[in-house]
């Protein structure tokens, strides 16, 4: 076991998860591949969504992979940062909107 | 990772990586020597494609010199204003003899900036008389605006029905200038507009204008058709520029790009990317199977990359002075790990994807 929980080299081993559960692993990668194919959304739009979600999930492997993927697709730094702000806005908005629960509770409890 | 840029070639700096044997050592050592990654030979053996053999010769690519007005970060030629290797008229005459008799349908002039060879125009005039179907000049665009003596190049190209293929790494100023130097984007745009004015790149025009895209760092090019769509939309909307096709080319780990990969600590990861993206279908059509590359001093190579690594053809015929197409076509192509660059994903060649 390495001294760090995260190792960039582990990203290359992602495909090996299939080895310990072939059926589920294969089904996952088939699904994954299908999701990122060109569809009603372009592959580039999907790559930008993936980058934003990678950040809200704070997954280092996903950030590594989808930053590279976006560069490959010609996406600019400005576009990538805007996508991350969308993720950040939803993440902070999701926190704040729960404030209405707090307000409801306070209003119910207080005379 | 940010890497210190130099305006001098590796040769001028007497850098170790200016030597072909040092580059080949790196490409055969490390992760390939210890078996972490398979060598290219081992990989193509898996699909019975070893040894790699030529098919019909289609393209004669002539490198008329390594001198260039630019010092691009990724340049596999290590070209620049300080390179003095220039093809002489004597060697050009030998090339003209070959061009008259070749079975190849495409003549492809490259450099450096080929226009900087003092005999360039005379050579184009003579070569265009040979009746070659497709006569390509790889122009870096900025040369057209670099000096008054080059201002008439668009008219010269048009007069000789030259097919212009030009590098354009991105449709934004920032990305283009970062790779190719400050001010390159604006000069390239101006040059493209001038070519458009002569009819180059227009939808129904026979004056072919194609652009070459290569990634701006340690990653591979994406879908060529998608990139072409993006380039066309952006260049039309922003500058009213039109062109025919976009060729997406993978950066090969040679010379300055290899230097960049090592200095930025991206080398191993990049080689993994190339090997992971290996596509056996691309092997069948790699450009060394239909191309002969001729250097400024007349030596013959399987491709421009092998030329830069000084890997001469494995044939009795090694020099333009002894040129014999039948003998040349009966050879094994020389390979090393840089070849993974031409077989990654949809493949890569001077004409774009191959698979």
From TrEMBL, chain A:
Pfam family, one: CMD
Keywords: Oxidoreductase, Peroxidase
One GO MF term: peroxiredoxin activity
Ranges where the Carboxymuconolactone decarboxylase-like domain occurs: 23-95
InterPro entries: AhpD-like (IPR029032), AhpD_core (IPR004675), AlkhydPrxdase/COmuclacdeCOase (IPR026445), CMD-like (IPR003779)
PANTHER family the UniProt entry points to: ALKYL HYDROPEROXIDE REDUCTASE AHPD (PTHR33930), BLR3452 PROTEIN (PTHR33930:SF2)
Protein name as it appears in the record: Alkylhydroperoxidase/carboxymuconolactone decarboxylase family protein
From TrEMBL, chain B:
UniProt xrefs under Pfam families: DUF3641, Radical_SAM
One MF annotation (Gene Ontology) recorded for this entry: iron-sulfur cluster binding
Entries under NCBIfam families matching the protein: rSAM_SeCys (TIGR04167)
Phylogenetic placement of the source organism: Bacteria, Pseudomonadati, Bacteroidota, Flavobacteriia, Flavobacteriales
Cofactor: [4Fe-4S] cluster
Source species of the chain: Leeuwenhoekiella aestuarii
Domain Arsenosugar biosynthesis radical SAM protein ArsS-like C-terminal: residue ranges: 220-353
Keywords annotated in UniProt: Iron, Iron-sulfur, Metal-binding, S-adenosyl-L-methionine
Highest taxon, organism lineage: Bacteria
Transmembrane segments: none
Name of the protein this chain belongs to: Radical SAM/Cys-rich protein
Domain Radical SAM core: 62-200
């Amino acid at each position: 076991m390495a001294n760090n929980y995260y190792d960039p080299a582990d990203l290359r081993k992602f495909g090996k998860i299939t080895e310990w559960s072939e059926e589920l692993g294969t089904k996952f990668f088939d699904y994954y591949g299908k999701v990122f194919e060109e569809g009603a959304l372009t592959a580039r739009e999907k790559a930008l969504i993936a980058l934003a979600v990678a950040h809200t999930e704070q997954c280092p492997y996903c950030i590594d992979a989808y930053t590279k993927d976006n560069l490959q697709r010609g996406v600019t730094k400005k576009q990538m940062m805007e996508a991350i702000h969308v993720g950040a806005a939803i993440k902070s908005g999701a926190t704040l909107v729960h404030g209405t629960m707090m307000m409801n509770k306070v209003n119910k409890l207080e005379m | 990772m940010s890497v210190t840029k130099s305006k001098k070639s590796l040769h001028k700096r007497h850098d170790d990586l200016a030597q072909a044997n040092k580059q080949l050592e790196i490409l055969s050592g490390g992760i390939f020597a210890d078996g972490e990654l398979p060598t290219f030979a081992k990989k193509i053996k898996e699909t019975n494609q070893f040894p790699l053999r030529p098919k019909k010769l289609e393209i004669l690519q002539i490198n008329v010199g390594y001198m260039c007005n630019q010092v691009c970060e990724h340049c596999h030629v290590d070209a620049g204003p300080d390179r003095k290797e220039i093809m002489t008229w004597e060697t050009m005459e030998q090339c003209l003899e070959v061009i008259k008799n070749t079975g190849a349908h495409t003549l492809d002039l490259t450099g450096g900036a080929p226009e900087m060879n003092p005999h360039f125009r005379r050579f184009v005039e003579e070569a265009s008389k040979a009746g070659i179907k497709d006569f390509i000049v790889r122009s870096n665009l900025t040369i057209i605006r670099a000096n008054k003596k080059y201002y008439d190049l668009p008219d010269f190209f048009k007069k000789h029905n030259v097919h212009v293929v030009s590098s354009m790494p991105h449709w934004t100023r920032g990305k283009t200038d970062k790779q190719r130097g400050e001010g390159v984007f604006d000069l390239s745009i101006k040059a493209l507009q001038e070519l458009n004015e002569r009819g180059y790149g227009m939808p129904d025009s026979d004056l072919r204008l194609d652009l070459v895209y290569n990634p701006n760092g340690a990653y591979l090019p994406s879908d060529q058709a998608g990139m072409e769509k993006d380039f066309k939309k952006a260049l039309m909307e922003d500058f009213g520029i039109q062109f025919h096709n976009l060729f997406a080319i993978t950066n090969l780990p040679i010379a300055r790009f290899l230097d960049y990969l090592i200095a930025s600590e991206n080398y191993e990861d990049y080689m993994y990317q190339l090997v992971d993206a290996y596509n056996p279908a691309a092997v069948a059509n790699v450009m060394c199977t239909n191309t002969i590359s001729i250097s400024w001093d007349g030596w013959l190579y399987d491709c421009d990359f092998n030329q830069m690594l000084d890997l001469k053809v494995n044939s009795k015929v090694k020099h333009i002075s002894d040129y014999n197409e039948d003998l040349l076509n009966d050879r094994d192509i020389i390979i090393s790990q840089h070849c993974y660059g031409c077989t990654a994903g949809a493949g890569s060649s001077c004409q774009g994807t191959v698979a």
